[in-house]
Amino acid sequence: KDGAGMLSNVLFAWSKGTLLDIDCKRWRLFADVLNDIAMFVDLLSPLAPAYLFSTIMCLTTVFRSMVGVAGGCTRATIKQHQARCNNTADVSAKDGSQANMSNLIGMLLSMTVINLVATSPSLTWIT
What is the maximal distance between C-alpha atoms in the chain? Predict the structure, then answer.
């Protein structure tokens, strides 16, 4: 699984690396959609036959590897664009802070929702 992720990381960067700057919005969208697909497949993986589980996990690792390359490269291009006064470090620091704060808020909200729906398995899948 890890080897598949590392290999796909190298192959994706080699084959698409030069295109990531040119059309960064499209590749950023690609990364977001592929990440959503990987999470969805992970959620459905317990429903798959046991003999397919390792293959499915390898596939989602490959997806996440591609997300890492496309997302990281396009993020750098977007930050450069947003840094109007040669302040790329400041933009990066603030972007990181915003990401941490939104993750913290999401974690707190998810803990609240889990406590509310923990007694009902059907509510777990609805929310």
Answer: 55
| Separation CA 13–CA 70 (nearest Å) | 8
Cα separation, 121 vs 123, in Å, equals: 5
DSSP 84: T
Q: How far apart are CA 109 and CA 86, in angstroms?
A: 36
Structural contact between residues 91 and 81, judged by C-beta atoms closer than 8 angstroms? no
- Report which of 23, 64, 75 is spatially closest to residue 41, judged by C-alpha positions: 64
How far lies 83's CA from each of 18, 71, 107, 120, in Å? Answer: 22, 18, 30, 48
* pLDDT, tens digit, 9 for 90 and up, residues 11-45: 988 988 888 878 888 988 999 999 999 999 999 99
pLDDT in tens, 69-103: 998 888 888 887 878 888 888 888 888 899 899 99
User: Inter-axis angle of helices 88-117 and 53-82, to 10 degrees?
Assistant: 140
